[in-house]
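W.,

You were right to be curious about this one. When I first looked at the sequence I had no strong expectations either way, so I just let the prediction run and decided to look at it fresh. Below is the sequence, 290 residues in total, followed by the output.
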Amino acid sequence: MHTVHADEVEWKRGLQHRGGTFHYRHLLNGTPATAGNFQFNIGQLEGDFSSPRHRHNFDQFRFQLEGTMNFDRNGKMAAGTFGYFPEGAFYGPQSSDGRSTTAVLQFGSASGSGYLSREEVQAGTEELRKFGTFKDGIFRRNDDVEGRRNVDGYQAIWEHRHGTRMEYPKPRYRDPIMVDPDNYEWLAVPGTTGVAEKPLGTFTERQCAAALIKLARGATYRAGGRSVYLVLSGTGIAHEGPYRQYTAFQLDEGEHAVCVAREETELLRLVLPDLAGMLIARADRIEAAE
C-alpha cells in the first residue's frame, strides 16, 4: 500500500506542452514502461489555460474538486462531477472557467498502448524544444527540421520517445462520459454497518471503474486492490496510518486495507483495468515468435 497526503506535496508547474497556467501535486504513479503504468495528480488550472481538441492513447478518469472545466461540445464538469475520457476518443477544446482543481488518473488501458511517465514527458518536452516550439497544445516543428509541421503536443512527445508514429486505438466509446453523482442514490454495502457506495460506472472489457464510498463516523471499510483511493472529506485511519482530506492511497491486485472513520468520510475509488489476460496473451505471442 502506498499513501501520500496532498497537503505535504508541493505544487509544481506542468503541462508546458499545452497553453496557459497549470500546476499539479503529484500523488501516485505506477511502474514506468509497463502496459499498466499510471499517474495520479491533483491539477490546478488558471483561467488562461487552454488545450485543443485532441485524443489520447490511454484512459483518463477525472473528478472535479473545485471550479468548472469547459470541454466545449462535450459539456462542462462542475465541482463534484466525475468523467471518463476513453482512449482514442476526441474531446475538447478544453478551457477553465477561472481557477479549477481536478483529481486526474491517467493510465494504460485496454489497447495496451501504455502510458508515459511524468519524467518521460518532461524529458521529451525539453528535447523537442531543440527542434520546434509548443504553442496552444500543438508542437510546431521548425521550418528547417524534417518531419510533420504541426502535431498534438503529447503525441509529438510519445513519437519522439518511441521513435515511431503513434497509432491511436479505435475508441470503445465515441465521447467522454460525464457523471453527476448527486443524481445517484447511496447503496448499502452488504456485510458492513455504516458504509454505503455509489457505483459510478465500469468501463471496457478490462473493467476499469469508479465509485464513491461513504463511511459513517466509527464505521469500518475494507478497501480493495487494483485501485487508487482519494479522501474527499473526513478523517480516520487506513492501514494503521492517518488519513485526511486529499490523502491518496493505492492498493495492488490482491492487497486490502482496513479503513476506520473517526468522522464521516467520503472516498473516491478508481479501479485500474485488469490487464492480466492481455499481458499473458502478449507473452505467449512473443514466445511463439521466438
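Here's what jumped out at me. The mean pLDDT is 90. And, maybe more interesting for your project: The radius of gyration is 20 Å.

Coffee later to discuss?

I.
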